[in-house]
Amino acid sequence: MNANTAVYSKLIKAEALRLGFAQCGISKAAFLEEEAPRLENWLKQSMHGTMQYMENHFDKRLDPRLLVDGARSVISLTLNYYPEETQHDPEAPKISKYAYGADYHVVIKDKLAKLLAYIQENIGEVSGRAFTDSAPVLDRAWAKKSGLGWIGKNSNLIAKKTGSFFFIAELIIDLDLEYDENIQTDHCGSCTRCLDACPTDAIIAPAVVDANKCISYLTIELKDQIAPQFSGKMENWMFGCDICQDVCPWNRFSVPHAVEEFIPKPGLLEMKKEDWQDITQEVFSTIFKNSAVKRTQFQGLTRNINFIKKA
């Protein structure tokens, strides 16, 4: 291994923090042996629901060298999105905290592009690709492998000092670096708050989520009508769900983010129950311009609002 690997790693981590990332860990690009049987079993039991794309590129999900030619290192990063305040009307249909501001895909891709450019300018000819929840990469597995946290019983990555309200992203590059050890042990202990709090019983075992029952899946990914069995169980969520994170004791360490793009859209938090129930295509397009909520489209969001309204 090049003697400069330690120097390069420190440079990269310092720049990542300067760009606003909360954490940065590095692991060797190799086959994810532990994850292979888990992913295969999860897919075999159809726990991915209608997310057919999860079945694609099985090998690439487990081996980054199939995604990036000559891949040597996976740089894992987290970006805090915990808001300073939440929706004001306690009776208003709820939106997951991560979607209050601008679409995280765009925000993170921009930061990753800057990080890669910094690496190329300060280290040399380095090739790589940026990933954030938009390609076959098991981001939580890589973040865990690089020591950024452990996988909680709600299947989210949890960091001891910051909780779990953060996005995970990767830069996979063809450069040898100094690799971090997965020294984070599981600190969930005997706590079962997330399992107990899930109103649809989507967490069927520690760290195993059946997407077919998950409120986030039902309100975002599912394009068909929501099954009647979930009537009265949605806890007023119209886009995503934060229940299993809100009840997690480790999130008492969450602090408000400092990412300008994640500041809530003007008027969003002030919208009352009636405003949501009377929402028009025009208001939707205005308030959710450049937002992750656009993924559901107007029809999807109104479907969700009408479903929880009838309950």
Summarize the structure in words.
The protein folds into two domains: 5-89 and 97-173, NADH Oxidase, CATH 3.40.109; 193-249 and 265-310, no CATH class. Helices cover 31% and strands 13% of the residues. The chain is built from eleven helices and ten strands. It has a four-stranded antiparallel sheet with strand order 1-2-7-4, sandwiched between helices. It has a two-stranded parallel sheet with strand order 3-10. A two-stranded antiparallel ribbon has the order 5-6. The protein starts with a helix and ends with a helix. The model has no long low-confidence stretch (mean pLDDT 95).
Broad structural category: alpha+beta
Task: Please count the beta strands (DSSP E, at least 2 residues each).
Answer: 10
Q: What is the residue-mean pLDDT, rounded to a whole number?
A: 95
Order of helices and strands: HEHHEEHEHEEEHEEHEHHHH
Low-pLDDT parts are none
Give the class-level CATH name of the largest domain: Alpha Beta
CATH topology of the largest domain, by name, is NADH Oxidase
Helix content: 25-40%
Q: What is the CA–CA distance across the termini?
A: 61 Å
Strand content: 5-15%
The tally of structural domains comes to 2
The number of helices is 11
What is the CA-based Rg, rounded?
20 Å
